[in-house]
Amino acid sequence: MSDRRPRAARRRSPEPPPAAGPPEPAAGPEGPSVVQATLYRDGRRVASPATLAETYRQLREHPDGMAWIGLHRPTEQELHSLAAEFDLHELAVEDALEAHQRPKLERYGDTLFVVLRAARYLDAQEEVDFGELHVFVGPDFLITVRHGAAPDLSAVRRRMEENPALLSLGPEAVLYAILDAVVDGYAPVVAGVQNDVDEIETEVFGGDPAVSRRIYELSREMVEFQRATRPLVGMLHALMAGFAKYGTDEELQRYLRDVADHVTHTSERVDGFRQALTEILTVNATLVTQQQNAEMRALAEAGFEQNEEIKKISSWAAILFAPTLVGTIYGMNFDHMPELHWAGGYPFAVVLMAVVCTGLYVVFKKKDWL
């Protein structure tokens, strides 16, 4: 995967400072973003410099060694210091500074630049948290630039230091271990998402009104998960295609093929999750529509029943209004009213009220209001 030429053939050795005047400043400021800088020889740690400048110096003194430098959200000056020392391409440095890159693998001369998207499942929030990792792999150095909490590279470092035979294979072996850690980190995420999908299916058929939002949020996370895993499949196949050209160790080839298999499996699972969520969202929309139709039907039936009751009440009110009107007119205290002193006035009024009420009853009955 890389050509382990002597460092002197790749980079210019530092010139001694002039005799007069103050010494030159270090290549870049040191800060908490430098997580750890370690020197290895034959698969074993030989030094842990405290600064980048000290790392550069010790690596020059031991051309047969390998430097592993880990950084977390480095400053622009720190990355430019590393770029000047290890001849990193400016485009790769710009990507590492800006972050928010899609997974990719690019080669700049004898330096390999790899962008990975790590993931972890947060049980408390029931959501997926994504991190970004940039890796520079050279003939005798490996630089990791981490943006986010994942992955835990300290575990990768411990694993490699416990296996000197693997670590002695050089930066390519460390890159394999990082790829393996990132891919292994996908397994808990897949398990957590599977559990979420099962819960969502139960909530959908249970009529939970808040499930639509949960489906949407998980679908967005699966889109991000796809963006993390799909390119990784092609990246690993590109690495495997260069085994013969770059003389990759056979044992390392087997390890990388195993990682590629795991990535393919994970990518297929993520695709399945997204398809399942799409189908669940469709089913949920159908169930919600059916529920709304049922509620509207119930409201319509209730409204119809209410209208029938109003019709009955209105009909009886109209029937009772007729005798009330007649009785009210003849109950007024006026001396001069027609039929007021007529002997047949009372029977006439009673008959009139009965006829009007009967007529109204017949009319309303024919209209099916009663």
How would a textbook summarize the main sheet? 7 strands, mixed
| Poorly predicted segments | 2-31
- Give the strand order of the largest sheet, numbering strands 1, 2, ... along the chain: 2-1-3-7-6-5-4
Q: State the oligomer.
A: single chain
Share of helix, binned? 55-70%
How far is it from the N-terminal to the C-terminal residue, by CA?
93 Å
β-sheet strand percentage? 5-15%
Structure description:
The chain is of the alpha+beta class and 370 residues long. Helices cover 60% and strands 15% of the residues. The chain has a seven-stranded mixed beta sheet with strand order 2-1-3-7-6-5-4, with helices on both faces. The N terminus is likely disordered.
Give a nutshell description of this structure.
By secondary structure, the chain is of the alpha+beta class. It has helices spanning 7-10, 52-61, 76-86, 90-98, 153-161, 164-167, 171-206, 211-241, 243-246, 250-330, 345-366; strands at residues 34-41, 44-47, 66-72, 104-108, 111-122, 127-137, 141-147. It contains 11 helices and 7 strands.
List the helices and strands and how they pair.
Blueprint: H1 7-10, E1 34-41, E2 44-47, H2 52-61, E3 66-72, H3 76-86, H4 90-98, E4 104-108, E5 111-122, E6 127-137, E7 141-147, H5 153-161, H6 164-167, H7 171-206, H8 211-241, H9 243-246, H10 250-330, H11 345-366
Parallel strand pairs: 3-7
Antiparallel strand pairs: 1-2, 1-3, 4-5, 5-6, 6-7
Brief descriptors of the model:
alpha+beta, rod-shaped
